[in-house]
């Protein structure tokens, strides 16, 4: 079984978990604490960031490692893509995700941690981040999702970062003139796949039972969420 090292609140790790969920795959999940990274993760990925996906080799004598969230999503959807997230304009999708990762994330970090970057005010950083939000608003004024009427790889690649921007100050975000973007984010925050992606798991320690992710698989994952939004799923463990 592929092994995913993850951290629940990291937007890159959210992106990877969403890709795995939409692909309908199952992985062993190792939830980590960033301040106390396990030696097992550092052994396979010395850069020490999440997500990290460890794949068994063909004869299981070696394991291959994917260290970037976008590559994990692409790998997962190449295995299986029942919802057609790759059935889109991939040039446009990749351009949007590039802009998110290289431009928007830069301003997002400074907006979130403005006290660490006193060169500009938090409002300045917010407004610089809004340039990308305005582009998303324009796309969503035309379609329900970023690149059309269906969810694409662009949506799951970008949504965790918009969520993080919104959560810096929810009152400010929902007062901004981006009604389509706000609805898109609200819909995502209530989506059963996102709720499953945000399930809470205890941090992994050597010797723990294997944790299988996700608990809900197949068509059940895409049916209306049977739980209220604030109820977390329980982890499924293998003895």
Automatic annotation (TrEMBL):
A Pfam family in this protein?
GST_N_3
Residues covered by the GST C-terminal domain: 81-206
Question: Which residue ranges does the record assign to the GST N-terminal domain?
Answer: 1-84
**Species per Swiss-Prot/TrEMBL record:** Marinobacter albus
What is the name of the protein in this document? Glutathione S-transferase
InterPro entries hit by this protein: Glutathione-S-Trfase_C-like, Glutathione-S-Trfase_C_sf, Glutathione_S-Trfase, Glutathione_S-Trfase_N, GST_Omega/HSP26, Thioredoxin-like_sf
Q: What is the lineage of its organism?
A: Bacteria, Pseudomonadati, Pseudomonadota, Gammaproteobacteria, Pseudomonadales
């Amino acid at each position: 079984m592929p092994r995913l090292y993850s951290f629940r609140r990291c937007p890159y790790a959210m992106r990877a978990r969403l890709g795995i969920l939409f692909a309908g795959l199952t992985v062993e999940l190792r939830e980590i604490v960033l301040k106390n990274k396990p030696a097992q993760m550092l052994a396979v990925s010395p850069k020490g960031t999440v997500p990290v996906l460890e794949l068994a080799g063909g004869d299981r004598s070696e394991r291959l490692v994917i260290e970037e969230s976008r590559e994990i999503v692409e790998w997962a959807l190449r295995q299986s893509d029942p919802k057609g997230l790759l059935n889109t304009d991939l040039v446009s999708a990749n351009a949007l995700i590039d802009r998110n990762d290289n431009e928007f994330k830069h301003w997002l970090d400074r907006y979130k941690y403005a006290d660490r970057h006193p060169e500009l005010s938090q409002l300045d950083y917010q407004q610089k981040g809004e340039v990308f939000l305005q582009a998303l608003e324009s796309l969503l004024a035309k379609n329900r999702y970023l690149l059309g009427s269906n969810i694409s790889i662009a949506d799951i690649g970008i949504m965790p970062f918009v969520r993080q921007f919104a959560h810096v100050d929810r009152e400010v975000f929902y007062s901004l003139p981006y009604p389509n973007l706000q609805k898109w984010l609200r819909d995502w925050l209530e989506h059963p796949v996102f709720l499953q992606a945000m399930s809470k798991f205890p941090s992994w320690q050597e010797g723990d039972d294997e944790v299988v992710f996700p608990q809900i698989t197949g068509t059940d994952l895409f049916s209306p969420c049977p739980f209220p939004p604030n109820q977390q799923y329980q982890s499924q463990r293998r003895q």
